[in-house]
Every structure is written in C-alpha cells, then in structure tokens.
Specification:
493 residues, alpha/beta, elongated, 6-stranded mixed β-sheet, 7-stranded mixed β-sheet, 15 strands
Length: 493
C-alpha cells in the first residue's frame, strides 16, 4: 500500500490518536488534504501561535479558537461534527494532568464524537497512559523522482535569482547526489541541495564530499559517530595486495546497490593484526576505494552508567549510519566494547546481541570494517563464519614491504628514497611494524636537524638499531597472535 492509502485507512477506521514525528509539517498537512479526496472529514490545524483553523477548504479560515491547550481540547470535545485535528507541537502540554485527562476522554469517546486527533512534532514523547492508546504513523521519505523534482525546482530558483544563469549539472554526478540524498526528509534534502547549488552554480562530482559532510552533520545528532575527514588511498598503504584485490572485486556491486542474482551485497570484514601494522589505514583506504564516506564508531563513547542508555546510544549510532548509507562504518578496536568478562552487569552482552542482530538484518549499504588487536578477547559469536565476509590478518611487514614502507615515508617528507640504501635499512628493521618504521624516519630527521646535516642512511640506520619494536618488547603476545591467525584467517598481503 502507498503512504496515502495507509493514512486513508487510518482515517476511515476513525483511529482516535495518531502520532507523527517529522520536521516537515507542511508535507503532513498536504498529505491529510490529499486523504480527504478519498474519505471526507472536516480538517483542522492548531498551533500555540495561531490557534485553531479549519483548513480543508480551498482557503484557510481565520482562527476561531483560543490558542491555549486546555481550551482547544474542550472545544474538540464539545464539537458536534467529527473531524481531524492536527495539533502541532502539542505534546509538551501533556505534562499537565488535566490535559492528559481531557485528551484521554476525547480518545476514549467520553462525551465526544469519534474525532481523529493527530499529534505532529519533531520528537513526540507521550506519557505511558497515552502511548498505549496511540498509533504511530511514519511518513515515507521522498523517492528518487521526488528528489529529482526538488533539484530542478532549486535549479530554477537559482536561475531566476541570478539573471537567467543556468545551473551546470553533470548527469552522472546528479545521479550520485540523488542517491546520497535518499534517507533524508524533503526539508533536509532541499536544504543541502540549495547549499550545493548556490555555492558555485553547479552540480558536479566535486560536490559529493561536501554533500557527505553536510549529511553527516545533519543526521549525527547523537554525536556517537565520527566523520573521518582524513581519508587514505590504497596507494598510501604498503602491501595488503590480497585485501586490495578483494575490495576491488566488490566495488561495483557495493556502489551500484544491485547485486547480480545469487550474489549477496558485500557486508564487511574484520581486520586482525599486530598493533601499528596499518589496520586503521586500511579502513580509511577501503572507504576511498569504494568512493563513499568513512564513519568511525568508538565504543568508548557509547557506554553510559544509566541502565539501557548504552544500548540506546548504539541503536542511534547504527540508525544514523543507515541514513548516511552508502558508507563504510569503521568499528575501531571492537574488542574493547564487547569483551568485558561479565563485569558490567550484562551491558556488553546486550550490546553484542543488538550489534549481531543489526549486522544480520540491515538492508542499507553499510560496509563494516571492524579492527581488533586482541583476538582472544573477541566473543566467539562475532567470529563465526557469516558475520563478516572475510577475516583478514595484517601481519608484520616482510622485507619487500619494509622497503616499500621506507620509500613511502621518505617521499612524504620530500626526501629522495634513491639516496638511501633501502634494502639494508629494511634488513635492519626486521620485526618492525609500519608505525615503528615511520617513527624511525621521524627520529632520524630530528637527529639530522640536531646535527645540522641532511638525513642519510647512517643516521637512519642508527635510529633503527636504537629502537626496540613491539615484536621484541612483547614477543610472546605477538607470536601467540601470529600463531593463532596462521590457520584461521586470510593474510592481507
């Protein structure tokens, strides 16, 4: 059934109390006006600023009722003709016992005609006594055709305001913009589209990053997600050839949203590995490889001392991620949020349960990249086959990869890699992670600056030999992790 058919059915059934949460009040009013073409009722709108008006005619009547909440409820109760009453932002006045009682009498038809009361607001929270009597109606979000019509309207407005200058539009970019605007109300989508058009009088591929940022700022009201502005490319990551090829094979299906028959859309991957070996860089590069925004979920920001709040925070964060789809959701150090040893009153078990359910049932194109350092602390439910498409292990770099890492870090600092003996430096840095190799280069630069000479192989070699990598400091733990992963995971490289 269509949205209009659903609403008409509720009106025909004389549903006593309907709750609609939306920011687009005008669209709700228009939807009720359209419903009157199928089932006639007198239609009224009330707000604290305008009072009560009848709006089912071609024009709106002047306000004929006082604006205070108590009076309008009594007026509705005493009305001799049944009607539909849209009460805008009325729910704050239900904190008064007298208002609650009056509304309950109307809803339960005590000395009242079978009216349809509709509470409209951005967030409508009802007392338990009224919640049990209410039916919540969720207006459907605009589809691609409605969004395209809106873009044309905004483009026409820009042309009119700028002396006939037409908006330059790239067809492929417009299609991607429309796809990224899905999941927003028409009001929010129009606000973003207007910013993109009026910024430079054009709609092109360069608008997509700005659109993603605007959409994130709009939807992440809970503050539990972080938008990663600093992305990376796969060319910035040494090694990981098998993982890069795996992502490239799935890119077209994920971006198009249309998987061939018999092929499930890509869901996500778990990255295990030694600290400092590039799991975070790979998460960022995955988003860049797919060409979508990267959102980071930090479990540390979710936990709250009050019962149920942690689960609510997770629910809000995942709902925001779905609205921001298509995107990559990076869950950093996932073991810290799911491995408490039962010392948190069962919170981590409930969080795990909700996360697993969401992972299995989500429909939105949200690709998960979960990273972990301590695999032994991860719950078995998360590791079983099917939770992730693949589990990759990011190991300590081999000699060829260490040469590549040295080359990358020297080039980033405007140094010529050919001026260094890279094979010798790579051999000396055996057991180093990528992060430790980078820090050796940084330390060498500081040493060269102190001695007022350019960095050379000897200075860099000295810094490498003075460094004790994690594979030495925590040799047993690192070796245990590598032994565990050898037969259980897929090597990233």
């Amino acid at each position: 059934m269509s949205e209009l058919q659903d609403l008409t059915a509720l009106i025909r059934a004389n549903t006593p109390l309907i709750v609609i949460q939306t920011q687009d009040e005008s669209r709700v009013v228009e939807l009720f006006r359209q419903a009157l073409m199928h089932v006639w009722r007198a239609l009224y709108r009330w707000s604290i600023t305008e009072g009560l008006r009848r709006i089912d005619m071609d024009r709106e009547d002047e306000a004929f009722g006082p604006p205070d909440a108590s009076s309008v409820l009594r007026m509705i109760q005493e009305a001799e003709q049944r009607g539909i009453y849209l009460l805008l932002d009325f729910h704050p006045y239900l904190g008064y016992a007298s208002h609650q009682r009056l509304l309950r009498d109307i809803v339960q038809r005590r000395h009242s005609e079978p009216h349809v009361i509709v509470l409209v607001g951005t967030r409508v929270e009802l007392p338990p006594e009224l919640e049990a009597l209410a039916t919540r109606f969720n207006p459907r979000l605009p589809d691609a055709n409605a969004l395209l019509k809106m873009l044309r309207e905004e483009a026409a407005s820009y042309t009119k305001e700028n002396g006939g200058r037409r908006v330059e539009a790239d067809h492929d970019a417009v299609q991607q913009i429309l796809r990224n605007l899905r999941g927003l109300s028409m009001t929010d989508a129009r606000r973003i589209a207007r910013q993109l058009i009026y910024a430079d009088g054009a709609l092109g591929a360069n608008d997509l990053p700005q659109l993603a940022k605007l959409k994130f700022e709009l939807l992440n009201r809970s503050g539990n997600l972080h938008y990663e502005y600093d992305s990376a490319r796969f060319s910035d990551v040494a090694g990981a050839r098998r993982l890069k090829r795996w992502i490239e094979q799935r890119r077209a299906v994920f971006i198009s949203g249309n998987a061939p028959p018999g092929l499930d859309p890509p869901k996500g991957m778990l990255l295990l590995g030694v600290q400092g070996c590039g799991k975070s860089m790979l998460a960022k590069a995955t988003a860049a490889g797919f060409g979508v925004p990267l959102l980071r979920l930090d479990f540390g920001t979710l936990y709250n001392k009050y019962h149920g709040e942690t689960e609510n925070n997770l629910r809000d964060a995942l709902a925001s991620a779905e609205q921001l789809a298509p995107c990559v959701l990076w869950i950093d150090e996932v073991e810290k949020g799911l491995a408490s040893g039962g010392e948190d009153g069962g919170v981590s078990r409930r969080v795990l349960g909700y996360l697993l359910t969401w992972m299995a049932e989500r429909k939105a194109p949200v690709f998960i990249v979960a990273t972990a350092n301590q695999v032994h602390e991860l719950p078995a439910e998360l590791l079983r086959k099917g939770r992730f498409d693949e589990i990759f292990f990011v190991d300590l770099p081999v000699p060829d990869m260490r040469v590549e890492l040295l080359r990358l870090h020297l080039q980033r600092r405007q140094l010529d890699p050919e001026a260094f003996s890279l094979p010798a430096l790579a051999a000396a840095s055996e057991g180093f992670s990528g992060a430790e190799i980078e820090q050796a280069v940084v330390a060498g630069l500081y040493a060269a600056h102190a001695e007022q000479q350019p960095l050379d192989t000897d200075l860099l070699m000295a810094e490498i030999r003075n460094t004790r990598p994690l594979s030495v400091l925590m040799a047993e733990q690192v070796q245990s992790l590598r032994d565990w992963a050898r037969e259980r995971t897929v090597p990233a490289d």
